[in-house]
Design a protein that fits this description.
Helix content is 0%, strand content 61%. The strands form 2 sheets. The protein has a 29-stranded antiparallel sheet that branches.
Length: 527
């Protein structure tokens, strides 16, 4: 079924975000459940009344979790007639009407007490007529004709005011925000796209200045904080980075300086530490590293020669006293590249072939003890990677194939396995188990295509079951059972596609509470 879309219109979002949109749903009754996993507290002997009354030929359809709402949908999946969006507690948050899947008619947003927070009307999918909103601290009004008019929203205490212009259902014209009598935002729109200069904030706090053209940034873009420049960059007429790019630390010191041409790295790039000393420097040409690159890590300076983007020549490692720690001969990107600790001990060694990591890769601690052991193939992790303590105790084991996890991943803590997860081609697939530090299970279930699927069980430290739940394609679907430490039933119910359905019972020392969330959705659409 095609997606449902119920959302506050953009013209009323100044000062408060819209509620989420309603997306696709199989047909269902219009009664929507409380949040999954929260014990029901109200008692009723029957399903709540429908939230929408559908015209002939349409039926109520429920939105999938986590969106909550109901719309009347015809046999072709088009919205016809009333639709509602629900708050987490099940109260109606918004109402609107559709004709042939297009918003047409009255629209309302409601407060938790049922009072109207905002209202207006649509005609043929465009806002039309008088709109009013009171968002609890901000209010506004607009009169639009076929989506055209001026929109103003202001804080009820007068602290700020925002204005925007719309034409033909899209933002078009100047837009401003004033706070305390000072302009804090200035921009212009054309047919829903930003155009011209745009300024946000103040340099004394946080400010951004940029220019837009045809939907992308052009020219200079600068970001300030507390009167200091944080970032300065430039874009060409096609919206690509072009020229100098500079990032600054607090206090005005340069953190990183780059150069681009038509969106590609081209020119000298330099990185600086907090004291303003260069710690890495080299040149790019047409996006490839060229010439000699210099990098300082833990007091060790490494010089690396590049040709056409690959290491080609002798890589030299020198400590702070000028002592040569090692020389690595790399021919056209092939050889073993090392890195050293300040003490002179080997820190890393990685095998390269034709400019790509390909072969063994190992890391060592400052005393030369192996802590990481793995391998690459064609610049991607491949085979089993192992992490261990300096004493050799396992910490992590991850099997890779062509750069993606493939097989059983294991994590250890104090010698005990605390996680086992199965992967296939980079996504979780198959059994999944989390364990307490003593090895006892804490959570067990399975994944299919990286989503929870099937039975899942949560355990307490004493081994007792706390929760049994069922999933399908990542959504709660099937029985739900919560138990206390003695094995007594606390909550029992049923989910369908992430929603509570049917009768749910909650048992406490005060008695049993029963809530009927209505029958499950039918398996297929009813024309």
């Amino acid at each position: 079924m095609r997606a449902l879309a119920i959302a506050l219109p953009v013209l009323v979002t100044c000062g408060a975000p819209p509620p989420p949109a309603i997306t696709a749903a199989p047909p269902a009754i219009a009664a929507i459940d409380a949040d999954a996993g929260v014990a029901a507290r109200a008692t009723t002997d029957a399903a709540p009344p429908p939230l929408v009354t559908c015209p002939t030929g349409a039926h109520p359809a429920r939105a999938p979790w986590p969106t909550r709402g109901v719309a009347c949908v015809d046999g072709n999946g088009r919205r016809q007639g009333p639709a509602v969006e629900l708050a987490p507690d099940g109260a109606v948050a918004a109402r609107r009407t559709f004709v042939d899947d297009v918003a047409d008619g009255r629209w309302q947003a409601l407060a938790p007490d049922g009072s109207v927070r905002a209202e207006g009307a649509y005609r043929g999918g465009r806002p039309d007529g008088t709109w009013r909103w009171d968002l609890g601290g901000a209010a506004g009004a607009a009169t639009l004709v076929d989506g055209t008019g001026a929109i103003t929203t202001a804080a009820t205490d007068g602290a700020w005011i925002a204005t925007r212009a719309w034409r033909g259902g899209a933002q078009d014209g100047p837009a401003t925000v004033d706070v305390g009598g000072q302009r804090r935002r200035t921009e212009a729109w054309q047919a829903g796209q930003l155009v011209g200069a745009r300024a946000i904030g103040t340099r004394a706090t946080v400010a951004l200045h940029e220019t837009w053209q045809a939907g992308h940034r052009v020219g200079a873009r600068t970001l300030w904080r507390h009167g200091q420049t944080l970032l300065a960059e430039r874009f060409d007429a096609d919206g690509r980075l072009d020229g100098a790019w500079t990032a600054y630390r607090s206090g005005g010191r340069v953190r990183e300086a780059r150069r681009y041409r038509a969106g590609v790295a081209d020119g000298t790039w330099t990185w600086f530490d907090g004291a303003g000393q260069a710690v890495r420097r080299g040149d790019y040409h047409a996006g490839q590293r060229v010439g000699t690159w210099t990098e300082v890590v833990d007091g060790v300076t490494t010089t690396t020669p590049y040709r056409a983007g690959v290491v080609d020549g002798e890589v030299v490692h020198v400590d702070a006293r000028g002592r040569v720690l090692g020389r690595d001969r790399i021919a056209r990107g092939t050889g073993v590249v090392r890195r050293f600790h300040a003490s002179g001990a080997l820190a890393e060694e990685t095998t390269y072939r034709r400019g790509q990591r390909d072969g063994a890769a190992r890391s060592y601690d400052a005393r030369g003890r192996l802590v990481v052991d793995g391998a690459y193939r064609a610049d991607a992790r491949d085979g089993t990677w192992r992490w261990q303590t300096a004493g050799g105790a396992p910490l992590r084991e991850e099997p890779y194939r062509a750069g993606r996890l493939d097989g059983v991943v294991r994590h250890w803590r104090a010698g005990a396995v605390v996680l086992e997860a199965s992967y296939a081609a980079g996504v979780r697939q198959g059994p999944y188990v989390e364990r307490f530090a003593d090895g006892a299970p804490a959570l067990a279930g399975s994944y299919a295509a990286d989503q929870r699927d099937g039975a899942w069980t949560t355990y307490r430290r004493d081994g007792s079951v706390a929760l049994r739940a069922s999933y399908r394609a990542g959504l709660l679907d099937g029985p739900w059972l919560e138990l206390d430490a003695a094995g007594r039933e606390r909550v029992r119910g049923q989910h369908q596609a992430g929603h509570r359905v049917g009768v749910w019972t909650t048992t406490t020392a005060d008695g049993t509470t029963v809530v009927d969330h209505g029958p499950p959705d039918p398996p297929t659409a009813t024309p």
